[in-house]
Write a structure and sequence with these properties.
about 750 residues, alpha+beta, nine-stranded antiparallel β-sheet, 35 helices, about 10% strand, disordered N terminus
Length: about 750
């Protein structure tokens, strides 16, 4: 009998794997899934997951390589074909033009990107992309992903630089079971994948044991275990129905919570740092990734998307997430398309009689203003042509837009009107201003601006019904207001069910004396989630091991190594080397610390934090001349305010006060909105010029009314001038900021 490819494969599996689910599961490829899951396989074919990454050939390349040119900032790039390959002649890392052959393509619509192989296993992504939209839509053209920036060779944003490196920046999400395999010793990659695109096992996990299970006779199968590492929601497993009394949707069949699905999708559809490449569907997302929270420059204060954030954290802000809605309630997980066209996807759960009516939206039928998506999921344009919808599903708040400096859905359309006009219209329609679910914007803005009401607003977020991601985003700031009350609150937040909240609570505790917090931080070393454990280890790394019991020392060492390995995983990044240097410094391993500082500057000489922290390290080692040299070298590469500030402090510490004040003034001039630079400069001149120091500090206080250091400094300078009344006023203001009581 002639065996079909599938039967041949199953025979091999039968021989290699016994009829038990005990072996470590292995990736088998999408062809092994096709026979039993043909419908899903057909839906997946041609999807953005299927086409996430492909080898470059005549079928996959969409861009015009017929000797066309694209010019930007004096660089003329030419796209042409040669010997069956697709070539681009463009500027290389040396600033000269070279021919590069395209090896791979990313995506298909609304744009396609192109990748070039370099020595040492590196793959770089061109920052000139192909607009694959139709000509009528403005497409069928080459365009720059950085149209407003003049990026020179050597810049981190140059296409040959680290920020457009496929191995680190892109690979994990565009292929199945990818292993980066970076070697820090020779700065090379041996990146591998099981399948070049995002295939079945990216979401369902390695399927070798599932195939063994499928071969087992039905009567002998384990009903609870089917050989897959995770059990995702299946079509029809959950049902949303409308409660006839309330008119609200309810999840009537909770066959699955959808949390496993959320964790799988979050792996790629989130803005996050990667801790390793060992994630297997079914794992905890936060054991392998550190997700970003609501903060600048990623989000506006109210949580609306600003930078590219890839949906997950936006969705966590929504009431829909709290109600149990998951990705597959709205999207077909195989085609990736919405389950219904346009707003009809919303009508799966929301009654048309309530919402598809002018009584709800107060706009003409079929107009943009009548659209659920346009109002509650406004889109932002990224990568030049790619509109992405905000998934926080928020009620428009034009009444807050001007105060928070945020966009609002109303003035997005009515660009000839302002937010106050829109807010007045909404109040007239509904008789009130609907606050919506995301009521944390004023708190986050107050924290970012160091407003005098910040602590009070923070407690409002922590005490009321608020998304956990918002609580996590504010709780880390409690350490900025050190008091018994905030200490107890941070400790209380360590008991939260949400891992992000627990991690941020640890960050808040760093501001308090360790003798008051060490027991709680030590307990977090046993947290079930990795991002919490390693945060605790990072704080406790400097604790002398001799002061601990043997078991305590072993636990700290174990989790510290877990943290170190997460940094070594991204050893090609200067940020990771800087964190390694700080860790080694805390551990007293000074030779390793210095090597890591140096490596950070080798990887990215312009990386300002590395120069500043290396200089601080050298100062602690009593090597002031070397610290001075590092700062001077840093300024030759990058005239950043932070470097001037650090150099000014160096001069002051080394008794050259006059030169120090000049350099500190330069930092304050370069970044007038950076409070620290203004404060330090004012203090530097305050001894001899208290009136000028007061002038600077009071100017800063207008924008940052809750800054404790500024308030106390003003109290001190007025006391110095004999103005007891003013001194008392500022001291009382500082106390009121610190002592909010709910």
């Amino acid at each position: 009998m002639k065996l079909t490819p599938l039967l041949h494969y199953l025979l091999i599996v039968w021989i290699l794997y016994p009829l038990s689910i005990s072996a470590t599961p292995e990736y088998v490829g999408q062809q092994a899934c096709k026979a039993c899951h043909l419908k899903q396989h057909q839906q997946w074919q041609g999807s953005h997951h299927d086409l996430a990454m492909q080898e470059a050939n005549a079928k996959t390349v969409l861009g015009d390589f017929n000797s066309v040119t694209f010019s930007k900032d004096g660089i003329k790039s030419t796209f042409f074909k040669k010997n069956g390959g697709f070539i681009v002649n463009t500027e290389g890392s040396d600033g000269k033009l070279h021919d590069y052959e395209v090896s791979y393509v990313f995506g298909v619509y609304p744009l396609q990107q192109y990748m070039i192989k370099f020595p040492q296993g590196k793959v770089q992504v061109l920052d000139i992309a192909w607009d694959s939209r139709t000509k009528e839509q403005g497409g069928q053209r080459w365009f720059s992903l950085h149209p407003d920036e003049d990026i020179k060779a050597g810049d981190v944003l140059h296409w040959t630089g680290p920020n457009l490196n496929w191995n680190y920046m892109c690979a994990d999400c565009h292929s199945t079971h990818l292993k980066k395999n970076y070697s820090a010793e020779d700065k090379s990659y041996a990146t591998k994948w099981d399948e070049i695109n995002v295939s079945c096992e990216s979401c369902h996990g390695p399927a070798s044991e599932h195939i063994v299970w499928a071969q087992t006779s039905v009567d002998k199968r384990n009903k609870q275990v089917n050989g897959l590492t995770t059990h995702l929601l299946t079509e029809g497993s959950r049902h949303w129905t409308i409660n006839t009394k309330t008119g609200k949707p309810e999840l009537t069949d909770k066959a699955g919570t959808g949390q496993a699905e959320m964790e799988v999708c979050a792996k790629c559809h989130s803005r996050r740092a990667q801790l390793d490449d060992d994630f297997i569907p079914g794992d905890k997302f936060r054991d392998h990734y550190l997700p970003s929270l609501i903060s600048e420059p990623l989000y506006y204060p109210d949580g609306q998307i600003k930078d590219e954030v890839y949906v997950y954290a936006s969705f966590l802000q929504s009431r829909m997430y709290q109600a149990g809605v998951t990705c597959s309630d709205c999207h077909n997980p195989h085609t990736l398309a919405r389950k219904a066209e346009g707003d009809k996807v919303c009508l799966q759960c929301h009654l048309a009689t309530d919402y598809v009516t002018a009584k709800h939206h107060f706009h003409k039928e079929q107009s943009t203003g009548a659209s659920c998506i346009a109002c509650h999921m406004p889109a932002t344009l990224y990568m030049g042509v790619d509109e992405r919808n905000d998934h926080s599903f928020r009620i428009p708040r034009p009444d807050l837009a001007e105060r928070l400096d945020t966009p609002d859905a109303c003035s997005n359309c009515h660009q000839d009107k302002n937010s106050q006009w829109a807010a007045a219209a909404i109040k007239k329609w509904y008789g009130k201003t609907a606050k919506g679910y995301q009521q944390f914007g004023t708190a986050i803005q107050a924290l970012e601006q160091q407003d005098k009401e910040a602590l009070q607003l923070t407690y409002g977020v922590l005490m009321n019904e608020t998304p956990d991601i918002a609580k996590a985003s504010v709780v880390g700031h409690l350490g900025e207001f050190p008091s018994r009350q905030t200490l107890m609150t941070a400790m209380q937040m360590l008991r939260s069910k949400d891992a992000d909240v627990r991690r941020q609570a640890l960050q808040a505790l760093q501001a308090f004396p360790l003798q008051h917090t060490i027991a709680q931080i030590y307990a977090a070393l046993n947290d079930p989630v990795k991002i919490v454990r390693i945060e605790a280890a990072q704080i406790l790394a400097a604790v002398p091991r001799g002061s601990l019991e043997k078991e305590q020392q072993a636990l700290i060492d174990k989790v510290t190594e877990e943290y170190r390995q997460s940094l070594l995983f991204v050893a090609e990044r200067p940020e990771a080397q800087l964190s390694l240097a700080q860790l080694y410094r805390q551990l007293g391993q000074f030779d390793k610390a210095e090597a890591a500082f140096k490596e950070a500057l080798v990887l990215q000489p312009q990386f300002i934090p590395a120069s500043i922290n290396y200089a601080n390290f050298l100062q602690q080692q009593k090597n002031e001349p070397a610290a001075f040299t590092i700062l001077q070298q840093g300024l030759k590469r990058n005239k950043g305010a932070a470097l001037y500030h650090a150099l000014g402090l160096w001069y002051v510490r080394n008794n050259d006060r006059e030169q120090g004040i000049k350099v500190l003034h330069k930092a304050a001039e370069l970044e007038p909105d950076t409070t620290t630079y203004q404060y330090v400069y004012a203090v530097a001149i305050g001894e001899k010029q208290p009136e000028q120091a007061i002038k600077i500090l009071e100017s800063v206080l207008q924008k940052h009314s809750g800054n404790i250091e500024i308030l106390m400094a003003l109290a001190s300078y007025y006391q110095q001038l004999g103005n007891v009344e003013k001194s008392t006023q500022y001291r009382q203001k500082a106390e009121s900021v610190m002592q909010y009581r709910p």
